[in-house]
Amino acid sequence: MSLKDKTAKGIVWDMGGTVARQGSGFIVSIVLARLLEPSEFGLVGMAMAFITISQVFIDVGFSSALIQNKENSSVTYSSVFYVNVLAGLLLTLLFYFGAPLIGSFYKNEAVTHLVQWLSLLFLVNSFNQVQTAIQNRNLNFRILSIQTVVASVMGGIAGIICALYDMGVYSLVVQQLTTAGVSTLVLWSTVSWRPELRFSIVEVKKLTGFSAFVFFDQFVSSIFQKLDVILIGKIFTSSILGYYTRSLQLKDLVITYSSTSISKVFYPVLATLKDNQQEFSRIYFKVISVVAFLGYAITGLLFIWGRDIIIGLFGQKWLPSVEMFEVLILGVCNYPINAMMINAFMSKGRSKENFLIGLLRKLFRVIPLVIGYFYGIMSFIYAQVSLSYFLTVLNVLLLARLSELDMRKHFLKIFEGVIPLAALVIVFYTWTFDTILLKFLLTVGFMSVFVLFNYMLKSEGVHFIKDNALILFNRYKHLVFK
């Protein structure tokens, strides 16, 4: 099978799995949001912040190194596997016995018990890191999609059952542990590779030159990604954190549907083209255009309907999440674009440069945290969104200096949708759209202007969507017009 066919198949499977996983997860979140209180979600958010930051110590960057490395033997995979399991065991013990320190930090004993239970995630997840890397390397996203969908559904069912039996916040703990356990079991049952009873420190050392910088970047990134949750949990109440994490969940849903699958699949694809600059550049900019088009379009739609989605699905008790979400969603279109820029660095083997640039990005991320500390939660969110646009511009400038990717073309691709989105925000806050009919008309108006604007600019994103829609129509029109 050609690289093009593998890529197309990978995107279809990963996007299909993403839709199924996120769809089932979203349904589960609706049920749990109605059964549980915002403060209970906040408590789990406090505990998971430290767990998530430390997850990178399981893999220490070896997964990315295995994907980027040209050749891996079974001994290579086995050696990395045993490093992962040892790290997972040590982390579980460390967090179980160190949980009182985290509870003391939040001044909440309930967090201590949650961390002790959630520490099992380290050990469980350590058993599937190499298998996941192998399937990513081979663009075999069918197995990964099956794994994540089955795990998400089973975890959700377990969480709902526990909530119905009044287990409260521990329903969310059971959901997390069940999802991780089922995910590992499904992956082991569907992947033929098994670890050998062999370990080579030489093979591990071969990967550390690349993996070390990946690990440091992932570790620092995870800290800064969770600093907002830690700050809000420390300064404000668990309820406010619950409202904020609900807004983040919806925001992350947009990122997932707009581009996560494309970005994930194209990392190994770009890695195979790293020595062919012309083809590398052509594919890279085409993907950037597609993710930008999808990101801006979905951002605009959810900006219009955010209030109705939150109140309609989760209930009136989640009303404080509405204003947070309406602001957060305006920065979401930057995330997939920046993910692709990072892919460009990583696929070229520039993990060291990406790590150093990442440190610069993280320093800027301290600014919203300081603003939030002094001026409150909404000031923090406004600053966070503003910074996302600034960092996108910064990434383009740095990428132009350190690669052969054209800066002017970068800016044209990235901001093909920013003008229609800005116009939507102005209209939305100038007039009142308090009925379903008015919001529907605003939606039609925005999408019409957005598509026309991109069509006039000859955006590759809109032409990609159009061409593939026509292909699908011609392939299946006989089923409609038979």
Notable characteristics:
mainly alpha, 21 helices, 2 domains, 482 residues
Structural notes for this entry:
This protein folds into two domains: 235 residues, no CATH class; 246 residues, no CATH class. With 482 residues, it is mainly α. Helix content is 85%, strand content 0%. The protein is globular and about 65 Å long. The model has no long low-confidence stretch (mean pLDDT 82). Helix 12 runs parallel beside helix 14 and helix 15 runs parallel beside helix 17. It starts with a helix and ends with a helix. It has 21 helices and no strands.
Helices and strands in order, then pairings?
Layout: H1 3-35, H2 38-54, H3 56-59, H4 62-68, H5 74-106, H6 109-118, H7 120-126, H8 129-137, H9 141-164, H10 170-190, H11 201-235, H12 238-272, H13 277-314, H14 321-328, H15 334-347, H16 351-375, H17 377-402, H18 407-414, H19 418-430, H20 436-456, H21 460-480
**Whole-number average pLDDT?**
82
The secondary-structure element order is HHHHHHHHHHHHHHHHHHHHH
Q: What's the oligomerization state?
A: single chain
Instruction: Give the DSSP E fraction (strand runs of 2 or more residues).
Output: under 5%
The unreliable regions are none
The residue fraction in helices comes out at: over 70%
Cα(first) to Cα(last) distance is 33 Å
Q: What's the main sheet like?
A: none
Over all CA atoms, what is the radius of gyration? 22 Å
Total DSSP E strands:
0
The structure class reads mainly alpha
Task: Please tell me what the overall shape is.
Answer: globular
Number of helix segments?
A: 21
Number of domains: 2
